[in-house]
Design a protein that fits this description.
single chain; 231 residues; alpha+beta; 6-stranded mixed beta sheet; 51% helix; globular
Length: 231
């Protein structure tokens, strides 16, 4: 039996009870389109809260798209079984998670992460550029830090030279795309006042908050703390 338990404000995600298990299901109309955006949301919903929870909250992950060549990377990131060619995009959630103290913050989980994925989905759907394809991929891995052009080229099954050439034809570079995406995300996280400076640094791929602060000052002329307090 399937029982709808809860729905987020933007209706993209639903909590579903099925067979005694609790699932967070991505309810996008076309679940296999822009699969990297589903991955991006799931990775953030897994890795971000993981640092503050008493035990793993994601027990298994399901994706509708086919198994990629780099499927072992999914297991490393999610640290649980990952299934492809599934009937839905969903995460099995520990049934006690709603009772954990640090889990009582839906504004962080849904307001920041899922809304951003929805916004970018709309943007990328309207813009079929190679840069948009790169940004879509970067969204799923940017939190890992040290995102390299080699890693992105490998995931796209092209050479690094081809990656550089195609971006050059659109008047940009890989370094610029990555830097500008980090800036956009950082400003949006801080604008919403839903994440701390340290959490924002992690979410946009900086392992060291001081490095993030230097980059943010280069982008905006002010520290992330001053920027956030001034909104």
């Amino acid at each position: 039996a399937i029982e709808n338990v809860d729905k987020t404000a933007d209706s993209r995600f639903e909590l579903v009870q099925e067979g005694g298990q609790l699932f967070m299901v991505d309810m996008r109309e076309y679940p296999s389109d822009f699969s990297a955006l589903t991955e991006e949301a799931f990775v953030r919903l897994t890795c971000g809260p993981r640092r503050f929870l008493p035990e793993p909250h994601v027990l298994s992950v399901y994706f509708t798209h086919p198994t990629p060549d780099y499927h072992e990377e999914y297991k490393r990131i999610f640290k649980c079984p990952v299934h492809f060619n599934a009937r839905w995009n969903a995460m099995e959630i520990h049934p006690d998670t709603p009772n954990w103290k640090v889990a009582q913050n839906p504004s962080y989980v849904f307001g920041v992460l899922t809304q951003r994925a929805n916004d970018l989905l709309a943007e990328l759907d309207a813009s079929k550029t190679f840069r948009g394809e790169i940004e879509t991929l970067l969204l799923s891995i940017i939190h890992q830090g040290n995102v390299s052009s080699d890693a992105v080229a490998e995931r796209l099954n092209i050479s690094r030279q081809t990656l550089f050439r195609k971006l050059k034809l659109e008047g940009t570079t890989f370094a610029l795309v990555l830097d500008e995406l980090r800036e956009r995300l950082a400003k949006e996280y801080l604008d919403g006042r839903k994440t701390s400076v340290n959490d924002t640094a992690y979410l946009v791929g900086f392992s060291d908050p001081s490095s993030f602060s230097r980059a943010f000052k280069r982008w905006t002329g002010q520290s992330p703390g001053n920027y956030s307090h001034g909104r």
